[in-house]
Amino acid sequence: MNISRIYAIVLRHFFLAIHQFERITDIFLFPVLALVLWGFLSSFVQFQTPSLANFLLGGMILWVIFERVGSNVGVDFMFDVWERNLMNVLASPIKLPEYITGLVIVSLLKVLISFLAMWFVATVFFGFAINLYGISLAAFWVNLVFFAVVLGIFNVSIVMRFGNTIGPLTWILPFAIQPFAAVFYPVAVLPIFIQKIVWFLPISHVFEGMRFTFTTGRFQSLEFLAALGLNLVYFVIVIGFFTYIFNLVKRKGSLAKL
Amino acid sequence: MSKASKIPVLEVKNLVKKFKDFTAVDDISFDVKEGEILGFLGPNGAGKSTTINCILGVIEPDDGKIKMFAKDISQNRSEIMKKVNYCSAEYNVAWNLKVYEALFFYCCLYEVENANARIERILDQMEANEFKNKFLRDLSFGQRARISLCKSLLNDPKLLLLDEPMASMDPDMVDKGIRLLKRIQKENKISILYTSHNMWEIEQIADKVVFVNNGKIAAQGTPLDLTRRHFLADTDEPNLREVFIKLSRSEDEHI
Prior knowledge:
The complex is a heterodimer. By secondary structure, chain A is mostly helical. Chain A has ten helices and no strands. Chain A has helices spanning 3-19, 21-46, 50-82, 86-90, 96-126, 134-162, 168-181, 192-198, 202-216, 221-252. Chain B has a domain at 92-156. Chain B has helices spanning 48-56, 73-81, 99-109, 115-125, 141-153, 171-188, 199-205, 223-230, 240-249; strands spanning 8-19, 22-33, 37-41, 63-68, 71-72, 84-88, 159-163, 191-195, 208-213, 216-221. In chain B, strands 6-7-8-3-9-10 form a six-stranded mixed β-sheet, with helices on both faces. In chain B, strands 2-1-4-5 form a four-stranded antiparallel β-sheet. In chain B, strand 1 and strand 2 form a beta hairpin. Chain B is globular and about 50 Å long. The two termini of chain B are 24 Å apart. Chain A binds chain B through residues 2, 4-5, 7-8, 11-12, 15-16, 19-20, 83-95, 247, 250-253, 255-256, and chain B through 17, 19, 24, 49-50, 53, 56-60, 77-79, 81-82, 85-86, 88, 90-98, 101, 104-106, 108-111, 135, 148, 151, 161. Chain B: Belongs to the ABC transporter superfamily. Chain B: It holds the Pfam family ABC_tran.
C-alpha cells in the first residue's frame, strides 16, 4: 500500500467536494434533516415509551452511518466512471486495493462529518446524549462500518462488471437490506423463517446489541462477536468476489470501456 | 527523427487477445527502443487501442509477453508504471476539478517530487498556464487535450503511450505539441508509442511505423521505407496517407 497514492484519491474527492455544493449538502443536510424528522417522532413517543424514543433515534443515526458508507464507496467509484477519468487513474501506478482504500477513507471521513452534525443536533435539540453509552455503542459502530465497507466493495464490483447502468443499485442495496436489518424494531417481530435468515446479517446483530445497550446500559458481547465473525466472513467473500470480477473485466476488456 | 539506441524499453511478443470469437490482436510482436518514437497505425478497430490497453495492464492478453524496461508487466506493473505515462483523447482528466488540482492529483498518484514547480513548468511548455485555475469542464476539447498531454508528462516518463493525443487540437497546437514532444524526447531520451489518424503527425514524429490491420501487423519500417514499398518506389518524401489507404484496403498483404 502506497500512502501517496491513497492520499491522491482522498485529495481528489476533497477537491470535488469543495467545488460541488450538492456534495457538501449531501454530507450535512440529508443526515441532519433525517435526524430532525426522527427526532420529532422520538419526542412524540418519548411520553409513552421513553426507551422506544432512544431506539428510534439511535437506530436512525446508526442506519444513516451504514447507508452513507455503503453507498458512498460505490458512488465515488462511479464518479471516475462518469467523468471518463477511470482509465487515466488505472493507467497510473496505483494498485486497485490502494484505490479502494482511498474510496473507503473518503467515505469514512464524510460519514464522520455527517455523524458529528447529527450528534450535535440530537444532543442540542432533542436531548439525546448518544455519547452516554460510550464504548459499548462504539464497538457496535465498528461492526456497522465494517459491514458497510463490505457492501461498498460489493457495489464497486458490480459497477465494474455491469457498468454505469447498474449504478442505481448502489443507492438501493442498503435500503433493500433495511427491512431485514431490524433497525427500528427487534428481530423477534419478524416472521420466524425471516428471523433465521437475518441472523446471517451482521447489521441485525449490531441493532440488537444497540437496543440491549439502550435498555440495560450494558454491552452484549455475544451480539458483538456474532457481528464481527460474520463481518470477517463477508469481508473474505467480498474480497474474493472483487478479485474475481476485476480479473474477469480485465479478460473481457470491459474495464477499459467503463 | 530521433537517434534511438538499441535497448528496447517496450517489448511486445506474440500478443494475442480474443473477445469471444473475435480476434482483436493476432500474434503481434514489436518493440520500442530507448529514445525511439514508434508510430502505431491502423484503421478503426484494427487492434491499436486493445494493444495499448494490454500494455497498460487494463486488459489481460490471452497469450504473449509484454515487457517494459526488461520487466514483465504482469509481475511488476506498479513499479513499471512509475516510469510510464498515458494520454488518450478518449478519456478525461478529472472533469470537475480545476486544471491545477487535477494535475496535482496525478502528481500524487505518480509520486512526483516538487509537484508545484513541475506543474508550472509543464503548463508553461504547453502554453496552458492561463487554464490553471479553470475547471476542465469549461475548457474546449482541444484545450482539454493539451491538459491531458500535460498530465502525461508530469512524472517525467521514460515511456509515453499516446493514443491519438492531439485528435482535437487545432493545427497550430498540433505543431507546437509535436515540437514539444520531439524536444522532450530528445532531451530525456523518452520512448514513445504514438497512434494517430493524422498521417502528417506521424511523418513528423515517428522513427518507425508499425501498421496493423485486422489485429495483425501488415507492415513495418520507417515512414520513407513504407512509402517506397507500398506507394512510390523512387520517392524521397514519405507519404503515409497513401500507404495507409493502400494497406487498409488490402487484407492479404501481410509481412
